[in-house]
Amino acid sequence: MLDNLFTPIIKNKDQKETLSDLVYNEIRTAIRNDKLRPGDQLPAERQLEKLFLVSRVPIREAIKKLTTEGMLRHNPAGGAIVSDLYKEVFSQPLELLLNVDPQAKRDVLELRRLLEGEAAYYAAQRATAQEHELLTQNYYKLRDAYFNGTQQEAAAADAAFHLSIVHAAHNHALNSIMSIFYTVLESSVLNAADTIRKNEESWNATDNHHKKLLSSIIQGDAEEARRIAREHLNFIYSILTMIR
Q1: C-alpha–C-alpha distance, residues 159 and 60, integer Å
Q2: Same-fold call for 19-83 versus 87-242
Q3: 33, burial (CB in 10 Å: exposed 0-12, middle 13-18, buried 19+)
Q4: Most buried among 33, 99, 169, 191, by the most CB within 10 A?
Q5: Which CATH superfamily is domain 87-242 in?
Q6: One digit per residue, pLDDT tens: the chain, 244 residues?
Q7: The CATH number of the domain covering residues in 19-83
Q8: Separation between Cα atoms, residue 92 and residue 89, nearest integer Å
């Protein structure tokens, strides 16, 4: 993986950028293009030296600049980790809103319905073959968790399936915001999972939605994926409304 992450830096005589600028641009581009994702550990300086074919001085300067800008953060165990800028921006205000106004959860659930429909739409257009495989694996893990797991395991598997769709949309902002939603709405996800597991009709409807959603994404049918995702979230919303 590291061999394909970066390429050696060759500075032309007429280039105005310094070596640290070029290293900075390479790392920043890798983050923007999903080669390095939030939570990923940046390769150690000695590895970056070999990949870029430059000394540690410009590497350290580039890392310092990226850390100052918030794209990287210090890892207590050593090195640097790719930051989740959107999560850091949105997480605390959203949690504060939900603590101050319990009714805001309804608004967040409605927004989640809209965003997950768009996530499914883009996932159908952008998901890779590897992501198709992961989605399929997560679908079967979800089925197994609902039949054989605990309430918490079923809820976690459900979140993993839906978040893998969001991740396959290849949109940093959407991925981060939806991850926050699943964190702050954890109790709602647990309640929905418990209700679905106890009702055969609800489970059959939910499983049918998941199956159709998976199929439409793999087939690349973006409009159908969006329609099924919204239909599914409308169904889940109705369940949560009934159990309040």
Answers
A1: 38
A2: no
A3: exposed
A4: 169
A5: GntR ligand-binding domain-like (1.20.120.530)
A6: 555 778 888 878 777 889 999 999 999 888 877 788 888 889 888 989 989 999 999 999 999 999 888 888 888 777 898 887 666 655 666 666 666 666 666 777 777 888 999 999 999 999 999 999 999 999 999 999 888 888 888 888 888 999 999 999 998 888 878 877 777 666 666 777 777 877 888 888 999 999 999 999 999 999 999 999 999 988 887 877 765 5
A7: 1.10.10.10
A8: 7
**One-letter amino acid of 62:** A
